[in-house]
Write a structure and sequence with these properties.
about 400 residues; mainly alpha; Growth Hormone, Chain: A
């Protein structure tokens, strides 16, 4: 596997981060706002159930699609390179699914179009995440990984701000996000170049690639612990954020929950971006990963504790700072850590595809669990569960031995 001998340039990192900005905006603005609003209009009596089912279908698809797409990406041969062709094709499918989602008039049809959009995202992720392991040396991966997750919070603000500026209309919102997705991907796609893998650098067959991907956790205990930590922390974060719009309106009784969500998202953005870049750079300089990942997970648990102890608008703002700081530092350093525990240099995209399951599936599956918890015990129990998940994730990371 070819690895870049020196740090990638700032222009490369900027284009890479811009592509991720579009992906996150197109993913998180619908999850946070468009899907809840659309389902409330289509089926107001069952909006919580419908949101859980729509996201749950995408989450189930992620369990298969992310590893398989990654394995096939490792095997791909094309004139555009194996990583770039999956990124470009995924973005096109993603944009098509978004545009279609705004035109449907039934929650079942919405589940289908949103699934198409998510499959596109999974394909694009397969190409982009493998690029870090292909082209960035380990000592610089914390800073470059910040270009993946720093734009995540900014993407929420860009997406929510754009939808709000368009008057909150569902169909225009989806179309606008599709345009943003395509526009931010073009600079990367136009300039990206994939290094050719060396002899034996590709899995011998597609079946072997998929098989190696699914066997990776059994071959490497550190890889398995990293997967568990990412899964638990991502689940905790998803449980704590998926129903924020309903929590602000139904739980806190705020008169303008959509406006409050935008304010809370901006607070979250500032904390996330600062912590993502700061955590990634400090981790690179110190050569340590686990301590940053562990304490970042604990910060997220504290955010949940604040909402349990004092559920109020001021408490929500404090929780937004803690959650943003914890999640920002966690995601940038965890991505760097993950690339250092991959068990096979010939199946990078496939192994990262399994890791992406731990990142994406909780975002889609959490509504199923959260909806049940809210129905049985309310939002306090939901935030308690979210905090416990992040603490368990921090404990998992301490079991990794091959990375400091």
């Amino acid at each position: 596997m070819t690895v870049a001998p020196a740090r990638v340039g700032r222009a490369w990192t900027l284009r890479f981060g811009l592509a991720w900005l579009g992906l996150w905006a197109a993913q998180l603005a619908p999850v946070q706002l468009l899907l809840p609003l659309q389902l409330e209009a289509l089926d107001p009596l069952h909006k919580v159930r419908d949101l859980a089912l729509v996201n749950g279908l995408a989450g189930l698809a992620a369990l298969v699609a992310l590893p398989v797409f990654g394995a096939l990406c490792d095997r791909t041969r094309s004139r555009w390179g194996r990583r770039r062709v999956w990124t470009g094709g995924g973005v096109l499918v993603y944009a098509t699914g978004l545009a279609s989602s705004g035109a449907v008039g039934d929650w079942r049809a919405l589940a289908g179009t949103w699934l198409i959009a998510q499959l596109g995202m999974y394909a694009a992720m397969a190409g982009l995440t493998a690029t870090i392991a292909d082209q960035v040396p380990p000592e610089h991966r914390g800073a470059v990984s910040a270009a993946v997750y720093g734009p995540q919070a900014l993407g929420i603000v860009v997406g929510l701000g754009l939808v709000t500026a368009l008057g909150g209309g569902v169909a225009p919102g989806y179309l606008a996000l599709a345009v943003v997705l395509l526009g931010t991907a073009v600079p990367w796609l136009a300039s990206a170049r994939d290094p050719e893998p060396g002899p034996g650098g590709r899995p011998p067959s597609s079946a072997a690639a998929v098989r190696a991907t699914w066997e990776a956790p059994a071959r490497s205990p550190d890889y398995a612990w990293a997967f568990a930590g990412r899964l638990l922390v991502s689940l905790g974060n998803a449980l704590g954020t998926t129903y924020l719009l309903y929590f602000l309106g139904d739980g806190l009784g705020l008169a303008d929950p959509e406006g409050a969500l935008l304010v809370l998202t901006v607070v979250y953005l500032v904390a996330t971006v600062a912590a993502a870049w700061g955590g990634g750079v400090l981790s690179d300089r110190s050569g340590r990963r686990r301590v940053f990942v562990g304490w970042a997970a604990v910060l997220q648990a504290l955010a949940c504790a604040v909402l349990v102890v004092a559920p109020s608008w001021p408490a929500a703002l404090v929780a937004g700072v803690l959650l943003g700081a914890g999640y920002g530092a966690y995601t940038s350093v965890d991505q760097a850590l993950v690339t250092q525990v991959l068990p096979d240099p010939h199946s990078v995209a496939g192994d990262l595809g399994v890791m992406n399951v731990a990142l994406v599936a909780p975002q889609a599956l959490a509504p199923l669990l959260a909806g049940a918890v809210i129905g049985l015990s309310g939002y306090g129990a939901l935030f308690t569960l979210a905090g416990l998940c992040t603490v368990a994730g921090a404990v998992s990371v301490t079991r990794i031995r091959s990375v400091r």
